[in-house]
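Supplementary Note 2. Why include the ligand at all?

Several targets in our set were suspected to adopt different conformations when bound, so apo predictions alone were not considered sufficient. For every target with a known small-molecule partner we therefore ran a joint prediction. The input for pyridoxal-5'-phosphate is given below.
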Amino acid sequence: MAEARRSRKPVKLFDASRLANPATAVLRAYDPGHDLPALRARFGSTIAELGSNENPMGPSPRALDAMRAALPDTFRYPDPRGLALKQALARRLNVEVARIALGNGSHELLMLLAQCFADPKHSIVYSQFGFAVFSIATAAVGARAVCVPALPRGHRTAPFGHDLVAMAKAVRGDTRIVYLANPNNPTGTWFGDAALEAFLRKVPREALVVVDEAYHEYVDAHGLTTALAFADRHPNLIVTRTFSKAYGLAGVRAGYLVADPGVVAVLERLRESFNVNMLALAAAEAALADTKWLAKSRAFNNREREWLRAELLARGYRCLPAQTNFLLCVLQRDAAGLEQRLFERGVIARPMGGYGLPHALRISVGSRAENRRLLRALEHYPAAGRATRPSPARGGRWPARPDRGT
Ligand SMILES: *Cc1c(COP(=O)(O)O)cnc(C)c1O
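The joint prediction is reproduced in token form.
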């Protein structure tokens, strides 16, 4: 009764933002682009989901088995130290357990680093077109953002990539963190070990250098291994990785970082006690052990990516070289029309307006069937040249794109 009476009252907006931490004023809620659960319910597997860099192969069967085996224990809290997973990672990476921290995805760790080490007195340096979480983490703690212009679009090896020389120059006495992504999302660009080593030599130890290696497992570029190679000489170096991409476990949320034990000890003070859940711990440990499956996942992605890139280039789309599980296609005009056309044909890609790249579309490497579907959706669509109006939905099968912020 009381419930019913209450619900009839006119809703008065409670202006909570007036009460909120000022840092939240510059932040916005995550925009997934589309209501994916609703689209899945309506169209099922006929959608090609190429918007979120997920692994079309799914997780290792051993990770699925490990999660099933862990299900009956889920009335207990997970191991707050995640020791079994950390030990497995320590063995694999040949580092001590004390150098590893686990996160609910690497996103959480990127945020936690800013929360633990930076405040409004500090600056945080990252690149234009760098991974979106870098600017969010900076804003969340009220630190001063130093966004360094990216390499020019005509750059030979890394168009729109990180300009490490300019970034080193942007580091000041008040700089606490430099965020680098290698390879970077959304550009797919990368830099080699030598460039990183030169960068590390220029940066004082008071600035933590965070190298986000979310796509590390896919890398096969000449001259690029991992930032971990420099960890011994640079205690201010931190490397983050994830189980979301090559391991195909985006939905369970597991990531890790490797850093100096002193850095890890600080992070542990603020880390939520049970941040990585029991199923994620079990899945990640099993996935790590299944090296054959990982090799298959990587081989499939890299082969398929190069095939897809060649197909897109042949159709006149400028796709940047990539070491990731996605391609960044740069058009001569705003990409909204292309995104809409793909959406009408059941292919979801990620527009890049929010990154300041309205002419670009990020397309994840899907299964062969999904990638073929993407190419079919592009038939008779002029890749370059004059702007065309997006064609109307055919047969009304696909709904108009839902409205969104940016
Ligand atoms: C996908 C991605 C991540 C991983 O995020 P999780 O929180 O681990 O799922 C981190 N960094 C970059 C650059 C990414 O593209």
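The radius of gyration is 22 Å. Residues 53, 105-107, 131, 181, 185, 212, 214, 242, 244-245, 250, 255 surround pyridoxal-5'-phosphate (CB under 6 Å). Comparable summaries for the other entries are listed in the accompanying table.
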